[in-house]
Amino acid sequence: MDYKVADLSLAEFGRKELTLAEHEMPGLMEMRRRYGKDKPLKGARIAGSLHMTIQTGVLIETLTALGADVRWATCNIFSTQDHAAAAVVVGNGTVDAPAGTPVFAWKGETLAEYWDEAEKVFQFKDVDGNAIGPNMILDDGGDITLLVHKGTEFEKAGAVPGQDSTDNEEYKEVLRVLARSLDNDPTYWTNVGAGIKGVTEETTTGVLRLYDRFKEGSLLWPAINVNDSVTKSKFDNKYGCRHSLIDGINRGTDVMIAGKTAVICGYGDVGKGSAESLRGQGARVIITEIDPICALQAAMDGYEVKRLESVVDFADIFITTTGNFDIIRVEHFERMKHQAIVGNIGHFDNEIDMAGLAKIPGIVKDEIKPQVHQWIFPDGKKVIVLSEGRLLNLGNATGHPSFVMSNSFTNQVLAQIEIYTKLDEYPIGVYVLPKHLDEEVARLHLDAIGVELTVLNQAQADYLGVPVEGPYKSDLYRY
Ligand code: NAI
């Protein structure tokens, strides 16, 4: 069986939701109409790692409609919607959704399972059934990009460090998977890497890793930073989180948010959406920031800006959105009040020191339901932690709604086409899509919500010094 999902009998339910989502994803459906015939991704073998949700199902079926072969894993152990995974595997027999797209994802994977399944997205076969690697990567957070880079580095060095070389439980699994592949074939990852044309990366945290690699000279291929398309980060990160943060808190706890004091750590795009999400419910929202510009923005948006230490004793809800690590630590947990709720909406779980929490002497972890735990301190105080510190909007709820993901994923499709069809225009480096494509993504979403766009006349266009059809802003414009 070239797939691994929770339950194929969920496929019919998944298909119904996929069909509903298609209606809300005009950008992706336009990609199918525009490019479905010419199939610019014909011959592409895309290794994908991105939350296996209904919206991602529509993305996968758009990529296949454009000619690609796809293998898919999730990028988070709790974020898979099992009915979406099943529906993509079963397909609906049409050219957009042929049966048998290999998906390796289910809700509630262990870390070991997660990394074992991540490795499988590289295992394409040619028409004769011989093993062949992917030629494109579509990543969210950079985990499968990391596998190829680390694998290649260790192969060059001739060895993978033992699992005891790190305290990080997740990295131990990476080392285990890489050691196994190196045992089987000492040039496996080098060959996989050599076959790949490029990567398109979905999120802030993954993009950071790509720029780091480029700076240190170790990036193997060109990369398109999808996150920093305006129609991605200023929409998905902000309006998506505005929708899905409270969805996660509500489904996880059903606590009354109105009247509570909530702390949002970080006031970037995700923080801005998250703060509005809670303020919209009537919470009193306090922001923490390290960047004076974002701190000033928060203050002028009407939020109090404080240090976590000043508010940790009395706040009710704590949400991390920084993309940084070690934001909520043991010393904070110890000072929180009874039944404080703690969650993270940033990409990785290291924003909250879960390992430190587990080591507090006498503390007990008690599961209320999957992805909702109360941590009982020796004195009886309980703190509720959502999704074990992993992104709660996808762990406790279903992530962002289709319409906003259509913007993000239309950028993904355009980015895949760019690298796959115009590789010679992209020497190794990290790029954003050109402005006219960013504007095009927005344009594709206007009709669906009844927007009447004003059209420049030639004299006005000349006055501004822009073409009538755009692009309208310089790259310096910040929206
Ligand atoms: P960003 O860079 O716009 O915002 C992060 C903010 O946190 C910055 O303003 C930074 O100054 C601040 N910060 C950093 N360290 C801090 C600290 N110690 N205390 C307080 N503030 C601190 O990044 P963005 O786009 O908002 O993304 C944040 C995270 O969310 C990333 O990991 C990203 O990958 C993830 N993400 C999650 C989504 C979801 O659906 N859960 C959607 C999109 C992004």
TrEMBL record:
Its EC top class is: hydrolase
- The parts of the chain that form a coiled coil are none
Q: Which SMART domains match?
A: AdoHcyase (SM00996), AdoHcyase_NAD (SM00997)
Question: What does this protein need as cofactor?
Answer: NAD(+)
The answer to keyword ATP-binding applying to this record is no
Instruction: Keyword check for Cytoplasm, yes or no.
Output: yes
Read off the Pfam families from this record.
AdoHcyase, AdoHcyase_NAD
List ligand-binding residues for NAD(+): 203-205, 237, 266-273, 289, 324, 345-347, 393, 400
GO cellular-component term (any): cytosol
Q: Which reaction does it catalyse?
A: S-adenosyl-L-homocysteine + H2O = L-homocysteine + adenosine
Question: For substrate, which residues are the binding ones?
Answer: 53, 140, 202, 232, 236
What pathway, per the record? Amino-acid biosynthesis; L-homocysteine biosynthesis; L-homocysteine from S-adenosyl-L-homocysteine: step 1/1
Subcellular localization(s) per the UniProt record: Cytoplasm
The record's listing under InterPro entries reads:
Adenosylhomocyst_ase-like_sf, Adenosylhomocysteinase-like, Ado_hCys_hydrolase_NAD-bd, NAD(P)-bd_dom_sf, S-Ado-L-homoCys_hydrolase_CS
Q: Which UniProt keywords apply?
A: Cytoplasm, Hydrolase, NAD, One-carbon metabolism
Specify the domain of life of the species encoding this protein: Bacteria
What Gene3D superfamilies does the annotation carry? Adenosylhomocysteinase-like (3.40.50.1480), NAD(P)-binding Rossmann-like Domain (3.40.50.720)
- Provide one Gene Ontology biological process annotation: one-carbon metabolic process
Q: Which HAMAP family match?
A: AdoHcyase
Entry's family note: Belongs to the adenosylhomocysteinase family.
Role this protein plays: May play a key role in the regulation of the intracellular concentration of adenosylhomocysteine.
The protein's name in its UniProt record: Adenosylhomocysteinase
- Organism source for this protein? Nocardioides baekrokdamisoli
